[in-house]
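Intended use. Records like the one below are meant for learning the mapping from a protein sequence to its folded structure. Do not use them to infer anything beyond what is encoded.
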Amino acid sequence: TATDPILPDKQAEAEAVKSPEASVAEDSNAEEVKPEDSKDLEIPEPSAGVLPERIRVGSWTEEERKALQIRARNPDLSLAQAMEMVKKGQSEPESKLADPATIEAKITERGKAKADAIRALEFDKAADLELEIQSLSTELRRSERRAAEESVKAQAEYSQRVNEAKSKAVKFYPDASDKNSPLVAKMNEIYESLKDTQNPLISDPDLPWRLTQMAANAIGMAPNSSRPAPSSSVARQTKPPIASGNARTTAPATLSPKDLVAKIEDLDMLQALAAKF
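Structure written out for the chain above:
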């Protein structure tokens, strides 16, 4: 009897159902890929802790995050330098911390760049900028906190110097503590003059001491004294020479220092005259 011809679809089914031995035989006949050719098929993996050329989104390591934060705060550093600092556990120099106004300007600049990147559908770039903005926001809080601490410290140092200047003024010029004394009156007068002329000495923490010195010099008061010193312009009074013997019948004439000096003829007379004073 004639066998029925195998239809094309039946033939396909028959070829599909093959024994395992036949499949292995066919696979063994396939051309093997040479090892040197397989190198082109390998996809290099980025080494651990190193950022690839195209920064990934949502897959940051802790080291990478820290490096990007350091990089955002220090534009003069490269990303490789920032990564090296993180690996070595190095901290950022305190001097690198910018003032709040500078950081706020950077945040504004990064925000505009992020908006432009989103409009241009550059989402990787927008993600990078968002990370920088977050880092700068953290830096801004640090900078504001440091500025407040430095302000408090500076005010405390200023107050300490003012108190030291006041103590020194009272120590050398006791009248500086008496508001009704001529010294304080002169100090107030000089102070008003400094204010009117906008003299920078007004903001000097040593003002109490320097003001006391100026007032004391103006009224002729010596240090550690509660009364003005005698004026240097007052001539020293000299005792007139006393006549001897019968010459005392008439009152001796009072000679001025100029006349006394004119009567000195030699060294012996000068020594004798000096011994009388």
